[in-house]
Amino acid sequence: MVPTVDPTGTRVLRALQRAATRQIQRREFDRQTGPADLERSVREYCGDTKIVIASNREPYQHIHGPNGIEAIRSPGGLASALDSVARATGAVWVAQATGDADREVADEKGRVSMPPGLDRYTLQRVWVEPESHAQGYNRFANGCLWPLCHVVYVRPHFVAEEWRDYREVNEQFADVIAASVGPEPALVLLQDYHLALCASRLRQRRPDLSIVLFWHIPWPNPEVYRILPWKLELLEGLLACDLLGFHIPHHAMNFVDTVATEMEAHIDREKSAIRRRGHRTFVRAYAIGPDVAEISLSASDPNTRRAADGIRESLGLGDAKVILGVDRLDYTKGVPERLDAFRQFFELYPDARGQVVMVQIGVPTRVDLPEYQSLMQSVEQRVDDLNRDFGADGKKVVHLITRNLDFRELIPYYVLADVMAVTSLHDGMNLVAKEYVAARPAQDGVLILSPFTGASRELEHAIQVSPYDREGLAISFHRALAMRSEDRATRMRALREVVAAQNVYDWARKLIRDVRRLHLLPGTRPSTGRR
Ligand code: ADQ
Q1: Contact call for residues 99 and 62 (beta carbons, < 8 A)
Q2: Would you state the torsion angle of the CA atoms of residues 374, 378, 383, 389, taken in this order, to the nearest 10 degrees?
Q3: In principle, which of 248, 297, 496, 505 could form an S-S bond with 38, CB 3.0–4.6 Å?
Q4: Residue 30: per-residue pLDDT
């Protein structure tokens, strides 16, 4: 007898599954630090000390869209992570204005309330002037410091004029930060390699400030760093901070070794501190993560499931298994390497044709730099070649999506993916890997992860494979797709435990807790004296 479909039974089964997922989530989230915990901690650690965050990229841009002025959330790990922190702390966030409608929505001082409609913190926009300085500054950061620190065999550009622009723009940032701080004591949280000279410039104006800088990308070993023509000034800039943060201890150790190699300084390895010219800088590791609870809840929302089904239908994926890539199109992310391995996968496992597709979300980025233009072309070429060679009946084997997605739009893709491929050649942390894990509350799905990401130190239960090993990566696609469901669940459970234990609020809380514990808050640190 042919079994009949029992709609009531199916509904009950689905409801039971959803209830089980919610229960798992509740257990996971019992241990989670949330925005309210962070707010409490910040109040406890800092009292009413003013907090200023500064980063190159603004969390939201305002642009002229078809329906008037729109607020667009910036892609990129830094923006995603710090937006949550700024909300939790009601901070002032200083950042470079880049949207064509940014001026229209800001007040006469360049301030605007954020996030749009919620008014939880203040964005203080910086208009870098003249425009040529902004270009040189960006090129120095992205064309020199980025490849230098990532060590991915892309030669950094050393252009003296760009270095001068970088210095000048760091001065401008320091001016705006100092103005935002006003006469009060304050804790300044600088973000990333765009602002490496800011602390020393700020210190000249306000020796009493507490200054922390978090370096979101790797720090190279001393042998690599020493080729930078302005290596000493950059180090001096960073050593004006009270606390320097990196994602993993390895990068922090590289920094300490670099200082030891390049200059006279007293290194206290036990305390992980560097004293130079009477000023002490602590160097510590703080692993960042996404807002796991938010992603996990959104992933189990029936609307997200429906959106994932909609994507499957609109791309014409049928029953095919999906391997997903989500990256800014950056040469450090290993996208060509991933596509080449996908080609080899079809060569090794020809039966997979028609059964497996890759969805690659790749937002173009830094398109003014030649390396990024040629990367875009080479990715498009590879995708076309794969579709020509392995697609059938007008069906693609790789879907390349280059439009910028809102973070909420991204989650259905995580839900859709049977396998997530993170193949960075080098990465400070890599939030995408952790977001995928967060978006799998049903404890299914397999993460393939490059061992050259900071995340790989924590996510030991991912399938770890070098992106330089094309065949190894091709085989790992097969292994991930063929993995038994119990093994998938065991691994995903273990991954979720790790990811749930260290979210963005923990990251910020630990950083600020150390500011307090190490006596770095304004008023508790002597302005110029030896410590
Ligand atoms: P990124 O190099 O930008 O960050 P990553 O950590 O993976 O790399 O963060 C990317 C973020 O952008 C994720 O939150 C992801 O969801 C989002 N994103 C990526 N592609 C997107 C798309 N097409 N549409 C919308 N959103 C997209 C840098 C360092 C990392 C470090 C972070 C945080 O290079 O190593 O983990 O900062 O410190």
Answers
A1: yes
A2: 150
A3: 505
A4: 64
Question: Is 124:133 a contact under the CB 8 Å cutoff?
Answer: no
296-349: per-residue pLDDT in tens? 999 999 999 999 999 999 999 999 999 999 999 999 999 999 999 999 999 999
Q: Is the CB of 504 under 6 A from ligand 1?
A: no
Ligand 1 centre to CA of 76 (Å) is 4
Find out whether 339 and 398 touch, Cβ atoms under 8 Å.
Answer: yes
Is the separation of the CB atoms in 452 and 426 below 8 Å? yes
* pLDDT value of residue 294: 87
The helix or strand, by DSSP H or E, that contains position 252, with its residue range, turns out to be helix 249-262
DSSP for 110-126, please give it.
SEEEESTTT--EEEEEE
Which ligand 1 atom sits nearest the alpha carbon of residue 216? 38
Ligand 1 atom at minimal distance to the Cα of residue 330: 2
Strands (E), 42-160: 50-57, 60-65, 68-73, 92-96, 111-114, 121-126
Give the Cα separation of 443 and 530 in Å (integer). 52
- The conformation of residue 180, written as its DSSP 8-state character, comes to H
Q: Which residues of 98-131 are buried (b: 16+ CB within 10 A; e: fewer)?
A: bbebbeebbeeebebebbeeeebbbbbbbebeee
**SS3 at position 157:** coil
Q: Is 431 in the pocket of ligand 1 (CB under 6 A)?
A: yes
**d(CA 320, ligand 1 centre) in Å:** 27
pLDDT above 70: residue 374: yes
**Rounded distance from Cα 114 to ligand 1 centre (Å):** 21
For residue range 103-121, list pLDDT tens digits in order.
999 999 999 999 999 998 9
User: Counting beta carbons within 10 angstroms of the beta carbon of residue 295, is it exposed (0 to 12), middle (13 to 18) or buried (19 or more)?
Assistant: buried
Q: Note the pLDDT of residue 3.
A: 44
The pTM score is 0.92
365 or 283, which is more confident: 283
Burial (0-12, 13-18, 19+ Cβ within 10 Å), 505: buried
Q: Rounded to the nearest whole angstrom, what is the distance from the C-alpha of residue 429 to the centroid of ligand 1?
A: 9
Segment 351-367 mean pLDDT: 95
